[in-house]
């Protein structure tokens, strides 16, 4: 794969083993700046391992990872490099309840991230940035004082998205980020993510087993099976005309059309006790 400057994320020949077990076997894909790619597969297919390598949480046995034009295959050597990498690539996890510090208010959490990555801002500017982030994800000023346990699942996930955005990353890894939400709230959060991508030109790597979610949020898709990439193409091609038997089985396992109904991303999400 030729590595070019217009790519936000590039994975080339990636391989990861755990002893004699090959978790990821010669996987390559790329996402253009502002694009969105779905990494599709069942549990154990290797997609989460790939995400961990991209984020620097695991090391690869072979291959290369580049983000924002810079190599990040080897471990970061300095604190400054670790901060830069974190600023470039952020993640939103599946379960916001466990990924948010239960002792920290949403406001203090966001301000800490802003302070870490934007040291030139003074206190008043940091507070304004926190307010802007809350507004960006559809939360209210009152949520600055809220602890995660005082918020609904949808509100917690919006706060987790705001935390990822606080670093102003170019790439966001979405690791099954709506899987823990009920269907109506899932649709609202997907709408929010789609709107943020368009507004901010952020790049998404979506990790999901849910073909409906992949269809709504991504331009291209790659399908993983037992550590290998078995199919890739535009999302429409992969989902509507799958060529590999594994992808065909995935497609056949989905009852009815693989689509997600777009609903308004803003109604009642600020109402405590609402469906958010």
UniProtKB/TrEMBL annotation:
Magnesium found in the keyword field: no
PROSITE patterns membership: ABC_TRANSPORTER_1, ABC_TRANSPORTER_2
Domain of life per record: Bacteria
Molecular-function GO terms, alphabetical: ATP binding; ATP hydrolysis activity
Alphabetical GO biological process terms: transmembrane transport
Signal sequence annotation: none
Keyword Kinase recorded: no
Positions of the ABC transporter domain: 9-251
Pfam families given in the database record: ABC_tran
Keywords attached to this entry: ATP-binding, Nucleotide-binding, Transport
Family: Belongs to the ABC transporter superfamily.
Protein name according to UniProt: ABC transporter ATP-binding protein
Organism: Nocardioides zhouii
């Amino acid at each position: 794969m030729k590595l070019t400057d217009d790519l936000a994320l590039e994975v080339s020949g990636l391989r990861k083993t755990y002893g004699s077990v090959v978790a990821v076997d010669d996987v390559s894909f790329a996402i253009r700046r502002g694009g969105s790619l779905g990494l599709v597969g069942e549990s154990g297919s290797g997609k989460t391992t790939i995400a961990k390598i991209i984020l620097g949480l695991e090391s690869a046995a072979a291959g290369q990872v580049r983000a924002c034009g810079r190599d990040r295959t080897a471990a970061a050597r300095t604190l400054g490099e670790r901060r830069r990498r974190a600023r470039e690539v952020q993640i939103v996890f599946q379960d916001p309840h466990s990924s948010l510090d239960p002792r920290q208010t949403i406001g203090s959490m966001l301000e800490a991230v802003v302070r870490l990555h934007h040291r030139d801002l003074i206190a008043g500017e940091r507070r304004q940035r926190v307010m802007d982030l809350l507004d960006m994800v559809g939360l209210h000023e009152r949520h600055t004082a809220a602890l995660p346990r005082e918020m609904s699942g949808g509100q917690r996930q919006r706060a987790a998205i705001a935390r990822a955005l606080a670093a102003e990353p170019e790439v966001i890894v979405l690791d099954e980020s709506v899987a823990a939400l009920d269907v109506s709230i899932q649709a609202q959060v997907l709408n929010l993510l789609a709107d943020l991508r368009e507004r901010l030109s952020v790049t998404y790597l979506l990790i999901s087993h849910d073909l409906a979610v992949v269809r709504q949020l991504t331009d291209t898709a790659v399908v993983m099976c037992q550590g290998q990439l078995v199919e890739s193409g535009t999302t429409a091609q992969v989902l509507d005309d799958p060529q590999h038997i594994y992808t065909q089985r995935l497609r056949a396992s989905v009852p009815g059309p693989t689509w997600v109904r777009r609903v308004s991303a803003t109604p009642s999400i600020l109402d405590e006790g609402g469906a958010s």
